[in-house]
C-alpha cells in the first residue's frame, strides 16, 4: 500500500512540475533555445513518456526570425536532447514558398548554430536568433490558406527531378 501511495505521489509531483514549467524552460532544459516557440499565444503543452511534444497555441500565427515562420494551432514533434524531430505544424517561408519544417537540431551548442531541415534543404542559422521568444500574430490573410497543403509535400511530389534529368537538358 505504501508503494502505491509513493508511486501516486511521484506522478502527482511530476505532473505539477510539468504544468508549472513553461515551454521555453522545457526547451532550455533539453539543450534547445527558448525562443523556438512564441512568447504569446502558447496555451499549453503535453510531453508524453515517449518524448512526443504537443504544443497548443491559442491561434495559428506568423513570427519573424531570419525569415517568417508559421505556427499552426498545434505543433507536434519528438523532443530529444538538442532536437525536435518529425515536426508537424510549423512552416518556414523560403523564396515566397511556405515549406514544412521537418527537424530542428542543435548538434553542438558551442558552434552557435541551429539546423532547420525544410525537406528540400538544410538551413543553418545563428542560435542567437532564437534566444528570446518572438511575438506571433496573424497577418494579411496569410492564415486563410494552408501553406503545407499548397506548397509542402504536393509541390515536391509533382516537381521532383534528379541531377541526370538536368544534365540531359544541357
UniProtKB/TrEMBL annotation:
Entries under Pfam families matching the protein: DUF538 (PF04398)
Keywords: Signal
Source superkingdom: Eukaryota
InterPro entries reported in the protein's UniProt record: At5g01610-like, DUF538
Region forming the signal peptide: 1-19
This protein's name: Uncharacterized protein
Organism of derivation: Sesamum angustifolium
